[in-house]
Amino acid sequence: MGLLSKKDATLIKDPLFDNNPITIQVLGICSALAITAELEASIVMAISVLFVLGLGNVVISLMRNIIPSKIRIIVQLVVVATLVIIVDLVLKAFAYELSKTLSVFVGLIITNCIIMGRFEAFALANGPWRSFLDGIGNSLGYGVILIIVGFFRELLGSGTLLGIQVLGDPIDKTGVYAYGYENNGFMLLAPMALIVVGIIIWVQRSKNRALIEDH
Amino acid sequence: MEKRTDKNSYTILFAIGMVIVVGSLLAFAASGFKGRIDENKRIEKQLNILYAMGVNENEGNSMNFVSKDNVAEDFSKYITNQLVIQGDKVTEDINAYLIDIKKEQSSAKKESYQRRLPLLIGEREGKTFYIAPIRGKGLWDAIWAYVAMDENMVVQGAFFDHKGETAGLGSNINQRFFMDDFIGEHLLSDGAFKGIKVAKGNADPKNLDKTDNEVDAIAGATITGDGVSAMLKSELKLYLPYFKKLKVH
User: Fold this and answer.
1) Does the distance separating the beta carbons of B167 and A37 come in below 8 Å?
2) Is B249 helix (H, G, I), strand (E, B) or coil?
3) Does residue A164 form part of some domain?
4) Where does B58-191 show beta strands of DSSP type E?
5) I need a labelling partner for A26 at 20 to 30 A (CA). Which of A70, A94, A145, B111 fits?
6) What is the number of domains present in chain A?
7) Residue B202 belongs to domain spanning
8) Total number of domains in chain B
């Protein structure tokens, strides 16, 4: 990569694989199970977090030398909440339909522990450019898992992808439903998100055994 | 040595400064955008009301409202009258559709207050639609609907929406596969008000029986579905006296 130095490139690459916020650090699980019943919602959430974490990391990084250490968590919360509310207001005024799709996610973004985690662990100790890359990398790592989980839950739970029926019509019994296949309603419920994440963690650690912790 | 940012006085000053900066920033943004946001909400209401009475641009399975540019014109063309029902008193009001249902519901808890019920009357292709805006509770937050009925309280069309139901589950009440099921459903059963139940384990998933007072529920959205049933039952029941009088005349 010519654009980024080797050190900077790892900031993006690491959270995608070997230091993934969901599967390795086990952060952001709450939103991963709340909104992944549909692929579209997963994609929207991934993009929203990409935006908030990238920008929030830069803001915190710029403020890192003036934030009083005793109230730094509160300051971080205020920054992320302000960013999210301003974005929400701007969308409501200029892109009302989009804001309706996103409104469900606003509260979830503020409380997403990945965002607080990256502010605390990275942006408070690094410059704005590196913090920006770290934010992008971590939100991509988060988004990839969200989209994988959303893909399987929507496909197996509703037989659709992005709302399009890909397996045939379950009521008229066409496509695979003609052969006795049924949608698995259990996939739509929150516990199955955890089980899918668990399977991803299993596959990932069996591919790269260095990730397995000693106990 | 203690760092400058560790001092109590600095911390307190920083906190005060932060609150002032953030507070004024948000207040400035909120009041700056208020006009546009309110206008967007008003247009949305008109779009939803027209959608419920079948004035929309649905094609095949897609779901489309009429164009935003024509909404004001369409609204005045199709909505012929707007009523406010307050007990036995029925008055005309061209802004009845803007009545804040949430406010009316909470004011109605006081015994001295008689709730104002908006009812919009629309005409399309020679048919008359009576459209009631209603509001209720879902799993997480408010849900609301515009239900278009004929004079026998048979649903002719419905538009549902929600503030924060679970994405992919309860949030699907604003999708056509759910809303279209209501078309043709009866709210009355043998002349008495029964409502429409969003039923699980429905023996009629294709919704061929329109007089069973039931539509098929969404898997994984039990509480949102129950909220829809409760909203239809408690809110539309309030309109029953008006429809009874309508039959007499």
Assistant:
1) yes
2) coil
3) yes
4) 79-86, 89-92, 117-124, 127-137, 142-149, 155-162, 188-189
5) A70
6) 1
7) 81-248
8) 1
